[in-house]
Fold this protein.
Amino acid sequence: MVDEMSPIALYIQLANLLEARIKSGEFPPRKPIPSEPHIQQEYGVSRGTVRAALRLLRERGLVVTMPARGTYVAEKKA
Amino acid sequence: MVDEMSPIALYIQLANLLEARIKSGEFPPRKPIPSEPHIQQEYGVSRGTVRAALRLLRERGLVVTMPARGTYVAEKKA
DNA sequence: GCGGATTTGTACGTATGTATG
DNA sequence: GCATACATACGTACAAATCCG
């Protein structure tokens, strides 16, 4: 879980945790990963923090987000 | 743009720049002016600085701000 | 096709912590 | 000490697109 007391920003911790889960293959392709409200509940952080973490993952090329659809694990380049 | 080296506080410089844009008629009435995050990006300052500048403009009676809606050029008094 | 639920996008309000001059 | 400026993090509200019964 995220650590409130850590000097590392929560959204960075969260991004790293999610990255590990993505790389573990926990989330099947072609299906959205858990929604922002779901992650929010799961980790006990605000939606803004979840969105900041997902933004990092997008910047890392790990996920793609589609409005009103969800966020998906990025396709391995064809 | 704002000048980091100026002895004038950034938020005051920003308020003056926005005031000039408002008075030029750049922002049509009944539509929100650019959002805080937008201005933040545009001028390369923090959201806190944007908010401080907008607070000044509200105090000058130039704009009105509505939560979750946006900031609008103040109506000319009827 | 309709309507409600879901999901992401956007916007402002607020608080706290850090750093600088 | 105070003002300025930044980053982080919470909350609330609403819009727009999509999904599903």
Summary: Residues 10-73 of chain A form a domain with the Arc Repressor Mutant, subunit A fold (CATH 1.10.10.10).
